[in-house]
Amino acid sequence: MAKKVKICYLAFSEKFLAPDGGFRHIYSVCSQLTKQGDEIHLFTKGLGKNIQNKRVLSISDGRFYVYQVDFPISPFFIGILSFLKGFPRLVITLIKTIKQEKIEIIHQRFWIPIGAGIFVAKLLGIPYILDVNAPFVEEVFYKKRVSWLYKLWRKAVFKAADAIITTTTVLRNIVARDTKKEKILVVRQGVDLNTFKSNPSLEKKLKEKYKLDSKLIILFVGAFRPWQGVADLIKTSPYVLEQFPNARFLFVGGTKKGIAFAKQLGTSLKIDSSLVFTGPVNFSEIPSYIALSDVTVAPFNLEDYPPLKELGFWWGPIKIFEYAYLGKPIVTIGAGELPFYVPNNVAGLLYRSGNVQELAEKIKMLLRDVNLRNVLGTTGKQRVERNFTWQRAAQLTRTLYHTLLHKK
After folding, report:
1. 14, 133, 254, 281, 286 from 226: Cα distances, Å
2. In the CATH scheme, what is the code of domain 200-386?
3. Cα 380 vs. chain centroid, distance in angstroms?
4. d(CA 307, CA 139)
């Protein structure tokens, strides 16, 4: 086993144990790093009590600590005066923690280039890694006049970082506009092979609860954001139900507003009785929902999110790997790296974003052919096991840590 590394992981935009893909990515990688023997000191968004420090996990040979930070960390969202008051306190806290714990690397999740992490890294002479999961500026400040200022700041931080991690090659190419491409490492997301398991007993209860016995189940999991394509999937349902009246569209997750809109759309199309909405569920239940499905869908619509259309589909959606790992065929769009994750006619079926009738045909193709579903699902599972796991992501990240420390 490689030498243990002590890492300060800064994720000021994320709440600890938040039920979203952002924190799941952070927590999954950090957990795997500790299982491989490293020590993690994770700073996350606070609870209104400045700094709380507690040991969270003791995993294998590593240790995992969390610090929940409530200091003002960005002048753009809280005002210059509050920032000037809070920023020095945060810097002092980081310096004290790094010196006391003998931390060797600062690894920061990119949100807005606030400067505290890289300032401390340069001051103490330790490597600084930036984890970039989205371009951010083009999203939050889309076509706003102030975006040029954020872009300048982002470029400066990208250049100053010792290394940058992205989740897709599309995103690597976007980041490379502001820094050297050779210092950008692509580390794809995935699943935990040991914990992402379905519960047969829970599956049975869910089928009974939602009256899904003897039904063909088309599954969507997500937050119901416009670009995730919930509306497209609902518009698809009449075409599917015409041939498969016993099909049910199962929507897992979502917000009250998103679900209300989806239900209203279903009512207008007179297919509301064939739509099932669970609302938000515990992450531990997600594998069981996937396991009881026949077809899984990730119907992203680029028209509903201009930055994705203009810059390219930079996401590497975690649910794609989760669907596949449980042996389910996937229907999704042929954009970005999705054809790499889900090769057409190999691990799933691809269609053109926004083409509702084409989406319907792909779903019907799978519903009418159980053998095709099984073949695609089995291949997809094997591909995930080989290429898309949090264990592999942690191994690649550890290798980067040791490379930077060796250079130092």
Report:
1. 22, 19, 11, 20, 21
2. 3.40.50.2000
3. 19
4. 6
**Would you give per-residue pLDDT tens digits along the chain (408 residues)?**
578 999 999 998 888 777 778 889 999 999 999 988 899 999 988 654 444 444 444 444 458 888 887 655 554 554 556 566 667 888 888 999 999 999 999 999 998 656 889 999 999 999 999 999 999 888 877 777 767 888 888 999 999 999 999 999 999 999 999 999 999 999 999 999 999 999 999 999 999 999 999 999 999 999 999 899 999 999 999 999 999 999 999 999 999 999 999 999 999 999 999 999 999 999 999 999 999 999 999 999 999 999 999 999 999 999 999 999 999 999 999 999 999 999 999 999 999 999 999 999 999 999 999 999 999 999 999 999 999 999 999 999 999 999 999 986
Long-range contacts of 246-249 (CB under 8 A, 24+ apart): 246/214, 246/215, 246/216, 247/215, 247/216, 247/217, 247/218, 247/274, 247/367, 248/210, 248/212, 248/215, 248/216, 248/217, 248/218, 248/274, 248/275, 248/276, 249/218, 249/220, 249/274, 249/275, 249/276
Domains 6-190+389-407 and 200-386 share a fold: yes
Which CATH class name applies to 6-190+389-407? alpha beta
